[in-house]
Design a protein that fits this description.
The structure is a single chain. With 531 residues, the chain is α/β, with parallel strands linked by helices. It is built from 17 helices and 19 strands. The chain folds into two domains: 213 residues, 3-Layer(aba) Sandwich (Rossmann fold), CATH 3.40.50.1970; 292 residues, L-fucose Isomerase, Chain A, domain 3 (Alpha-Beta Barrel). It has a six-stranded antiparallel β-barrel with strand order 11-12-17-16-15-18. Strands 2-1-3-4-5 form a five-stranded parallel sheet, with helices on both faces. α1 runs parallel beside α7 and α11 crosses α12. It is globular, with a radius of gyration of 25 Å.
């Protein structure tokens, strides 16, 4: 493979402007489920085996069949996914030779790249993020000869790593890096067709510009009615809110994502109290079983369905809820956040707190996943601001094929308008990643404006974007609750902040833009809009 020659496209009748225009002619408003016509840019270029472009397609994953709990779920078979992606690339880009590789934990991408650079047989890379935790794409982008790299997300699987790494590489202004996050695999093909531009006169810059235009044109072609159902939010006066926050306490079990305790107390007045798993587990063991069964019966009566969850598991979850309520009472706290995965897998707690968090949220209290104190603080502030509306912590997914951001997690309220508000249906299911325990799919209301936030007491910033709730996704990959929303503003900005703010976001129903800016002004904080 003599890949050091210019591809025929760079010397044929296609000008750079024509290439860019044709490269971006994609789905417009076409459905994600229908076929995408990829323009035949190279039919007149007379490619030969000597001047074809050769691209290594790298799949980043734990193993072809997922060996442990993680997105999308334990036991997930990635082989059909990899076969399909290779198939659409090969059939859609006959002018490019693709070589498939897999990178797992412990395999260094820079070693592969060094061999490729020495042999001179690879002209560029497509890295498909199938799991989080595989950060090898950075080595492909920053090492060696800076060949073009297209970074693609497999939605509801590698999304956390994709978003955080993409934001970091965009912040570093890596000139050979382009990205794409789409539920339509043919969009990867459309972006791959832009790769020969990197070997033309414009170099990597032309390739990146073409993929950027492709993303923007696809999103621009999707039209959504952004008129929202009227939803008046009763806002607590800011001066009174700041006084009330000084009375708030949050319990953390056991190791938080971020150490923000002192800054939270200093800036907001909220006290974060660290407690051991043993305290929670002891209260779980002592929880009244008759009370627990009353809660179980309520869940069984109210749930639309209960799927693969035994009564014994429901009882254990109800006892965890009672234990959390006792903890809150004992410490006079308004909220609790638990390192649930480490606690459950380590045997420190005997039940997932998901259903308990659901109950706390419905009551206007705070139940925050994964010992994420930043999200817990955000919820404490905004639930007080909105007089009881619950926040929904999620791991968002960005899908340009539908122009949506999908907020996904295994915990959600079904009283998004507050404890006295209307309810929505919910289904009790196993926790998605490991198919164990009990969690919840809440069919959240659609047609409403949502406000998504994070408060950062250390940086004194509030991250902010808004979106219209469109649909509830039933996709089996990743977390159970998935509310799909169309963002307000610049879709491209949604890729920019994940490296600074982690993956989690907290979503509220209602237009909170004005009160958030008022709150920021009162605190002397900055609002960072990511949309």
């Amino acid at each position: 493979m003599l890949s050091n020659q210019l591809p025929a496209c760079s010397v044929c009748s296609y000008s750079r402007r024509t290439f860019l225009a044709n490269c971006a002619k994609c789905i417009g408003a076409t459905s994600i489920f229908s076929g995408l016509a990829i323009p035949e840019l190279f039919t007149s270029c007379n490619f030969t085996p000597k001047n074809r472009m050769t691209v290594r397609v790298v799949f980043g994953l734990h193993a072809p069949i997922q060996p442990k709990p993680d997105w999308p779920n334990v036991g997930f078979d990635f082989n059909p996914v990899m076969e399909k992606i290779m198939g659409v690339l090969t059939s859609g880009c006959p002018e490019i030779t693709f070589i498939q590789s897999i990178i797992s934990l412990g395999i260094q991408a820079d070693e592969i790249k060094a061999v490729d650079d020495a042999n001179g047989n690879i002209d560029g890379y497509i890295f498909v993020q199938l799991n989080t935790g595989i950060e090898a794409v950075e080595q492909l982008v920053t090492g060696g000869q800076r060949k073009p790299v297209l970074f693609a997300d497999f939605l509801y699987a590698g999304t956390g790593g994709f978003l955080q790494i993409t934001a970091k590489l965009l912040r570093n202004k890596e000139e050979n890096f382009a990205h794409i996050s789409s539920g339509n695999f043919e969009h990867i093909t459309a972006a791959a067709k832009c790769m020969p531009l990197a070997k033309g006169q414009g170099g990597n810059n032309s390739f990146v510009s073409a993929v950027t235009k492709l993303r923007k044109d696809i999103v621009a072609g999707i039209k959504t009615d952004m008129q929202c159902i009227d939803d008046k939010v009763d806002i607590f006066p800011i001066d009174d809110l700041l006084k009330v926050l000084k009375t708030k306490k949050i319990l953390e079990f056991e190791k938080a994502w971020n150490n923000i305790n002192s800054e939270t107390k200093e800036t907001l007045g909220i006290e974060i109290i660290s407690r051991p798993f043993s305290e929670l587990n002891d209260l779980w063991e002592k929880a009244n079983k008759e009370q627990a069964m009353k809660i179980v019966n309520k869940w069984k009566h109210n749930a639309t369905a209960i799927i693969d969850v035994a009564d014994e598991t429901l009882e254990s979850s109800a006892r965890m809820y009672l234990a959390m309520k006792t903890c809150l009472k004992n410490h006079n706290a308004c909220g609790i956040t638990i390192d649930c995965l480490a606690g459950f897998y380590g045997g420190h707690i005997q039940a997932y707190p998901c259903l308990g968090f659901h109950e706390l949220s419905n009551e206007g209290l705070i139940g925050a996943c994964e010992c994420d104190t930043t999200s817990a603080v955000t919820m404490a502030v905004i639930t007080a601001l909105t007089k009881g509306r619950p926040g929904y912590i999620s791991d968002p997914v960005v899908d340009m094929a539908t122009k949506q951001i999908i907020y996904a997690h295994c915990v959600a309220s079904n009283r998004v308008f507050g404890p006295q508000g209307t309810t929505n249906p919910f289904t009790i299911m196993t926790h998605s990643e490991d198919r164990q325990g009990a969690s919840l799919r809440s069919s959240l209301p659609t047609g409403y404006l949502t406000t998504t936030l994070q408060l950062h007491p250390k940086r004194k910033e509030i991250l902010f974007h808004q979106a219209k709730a469109i649909a509830n996704s039933l996709e089996d990959r990743a977390c159970r609750t998935k509310i799909a929303c169309v963002p307000v503003g610049d879709f491209e900005k949604l890729y920019r902040e994940w490296d600074q703010w982690t993956w989690h976001r907290v979503t509220y129903y209602g237009d909170l833009k004005a009160p958030i800016y008022t709150l920021a002004d009162a605190l002397g904080w900055k609002v960072v809009e990511e949309g």
